[in-house]
Amino acid sequence: MRKFSFLIIASLALGVPNARSQKQLMVKVNQPKADIQPTMWGVFFEDINLGADGGIYAEMVKNRSFEFFRPLMGWAVKRKAEGDVLVVNRKDVNTANPRYLRVTANNASKGDIELVNEGFRGMGIKKDLRYDFSFMYHQQQPGVKLTVELLDANGKSIGGTTITPQESGDAWHKATASFNATATELKGKLKITIEGNGIIDLDMISMFPGDTWKNRPGGMRADMVQLLADMKPGFIRFPGGCIVEGFDLSQRYQWKKTIGPVEERQLLINRWNFEFAHRPTPDYFQTFGLGFFEYFQLAEDIGAEPLPILNCGMACQFNSAEVATLDELDPYVQDALDLIEFANGDVSTKWGKVRSDMGHPTPFNLKMMGVGNENWGPQYVERLKIFTKAIKSKYPDFKLVNSSGTDPNGERFDYLNNELRKMNADIIDEHYYRKPEWFFENAKRYDSYPRNGSKIFGGEYAAQSDKTVSVDNRNCWLTALSEAAFMTGLERNADVVNMASYAPLFAHADGWQWTPDLIWVNNLKSYGTPDYYVQQLFSLNKGNKVVPITLNNDVVAGQDSLYAAAAIDTKTSELIIKLVNASNKAQETSLSLDGVKKLASQGSLTVLQSDDLMAVNSFNDPAKVSPKQSTIKLSGKKINLSAAPYSFSVLRVKI
């Protein structure tokens, strides 16, 4: 790792023998060359690294409905006598949620029958915060009392309450109670003690913190959503990722099973449960408390366009390579058509009414979707053509994102790129997980792409400090700096590249399968990596018109280790310059602005910088590499800007 970083430092410094000599950059402010789409910079969400359950979905109880393949996984059970606690399966009655817990109390006193849930790598508990506890129950007559307690890491009670269920009969009922915690704990637990006489059936045992996003009951972790909102992303892609495909088709993501009452959403094993032998996660399942309705709602909350990705009748080609035959494809296609109706349909339509009944009568205004995730080969193309014909026939203006496979080059990519362009694909999704050198070297990748026809979505990218799927990958400043350099090339070619997103998005410090990742969390805290701040700065300083910026009459894409892009924000009448200095020396630049009558007397300069290419942010030092903003004085129509070593600078100037 260190050897690699030194090689990079040396290679970047080779191009700057006279780093102190001033570089003359020309910006042609009056020659806009391309529109920057509102969707240019977005976020990619996948339920990997405990991203949903145990992450942004704020449920604190693991295996709340006993549907894991080991029904009591996550639970420790203490019984007074054998048979006092049983798992009952009612599969013929309820296929979506067949199991529940039957507890028989015979003069049970405190300590005789206990259920302890360990949470997702523990439970993050905050002092004085309200916690909302609930469960479904069924009993023939009252007779038992439940004591609910939060425990710290030493087993000490730090808050709780008691509940005596009163409803009886054959129907299921819901009981709720709220209480405040008396201490803060990173890895707490939940204990339920049952006393008294009687038989009670328990299901959907649940607890949420009181500070969810927008204070929605059963909602999302506010700190994690806030990090997304702070980026002001143009879109949010969901639900993945490889979980769309599944190991085989039985494990594929099916959006219709993720809507409606949470107790009726059918749990599914997460394909990252068993994907990597070096990072096994046997307790990783999808409860779909975070389902398609919640994804659409999240996109609306943070002002992002929704971009759902649907299975195209193909499972993961790295795993089973299972496909649905073409004559079995109709249900998959119908799912796509129904999703558009769910998102956009009037309340008088079947799926529009379902959306309305869930609390959102107005449409979500869905404009695009992806068909297939990282699929490839002729088998993908022939299925894609069927989807495209069906969707375009009914919704001709609807945009479709198509996969170009797993890599940004090679035989697989070349075949798909050729076939998709012959199909006049709306948007081609390219992925690049490569070392930092690749990102520096490919800042001109899209300069030679055709300006007309299919547009590009940089759907998944992240610089790998070690190698892809290595546990040693780090979100260090080197990776972020290389991504910033590459992104100047994406922005410069905004007439070709309409969308881009880093991936993966979230990672739990104690439950990750893949690294690097944009945002790291534990049960109490979250922080953005240096890569996060690069993404944020591009998104917050997008502009809407690309203008040329050149050095020695060429685009600024590696000369003397400089990379640059320029844009105009016509709404605010500002010029936005993004400048990367990838060398180990400060570089003096002079920006000549062609086509500007007058500049404001000062501008805003934001710099992301570290002298240590291996620097990382952490829970203890979350802002180690983070933006620093200042004001610079201006005069005339030239701007002198000193670019610090290993820096990414964003300059905004009123024109």
From TrEMBL:
Pfam family, one: Alpha-L-AF_C
Record Gene3D superfamilies: Galactose-binding domain-like, Glycosidases, Golgi alpha-mannosidase II
Protein name: non-reducing end alpha-L-arabinofuranosidase
Domain named Alpha-L-arabinofuranosidase C-terminal: residues: 459-647
InterPro entries tied to this protein: Alpha-L-AF_C, ASD1_cat, GH, Glyco_hydro_b, Glycosyl_Hydrolase_51
Keywords: Glycoprotein, Hydrolase, Signal
Organism: Pinibacter soli
Catalyzed chemical reaction(s): Hydrolysis of terminal non-reducing alpha-L-arabinofuranoside residues in alpha-L-arabinosides
Similarity-based family: Belongs to the glycosyl hydrolase 51 family.
Record-linked SMART domains: Alpha-L-AF_C
Listed EC numbers: 3.2.1.55
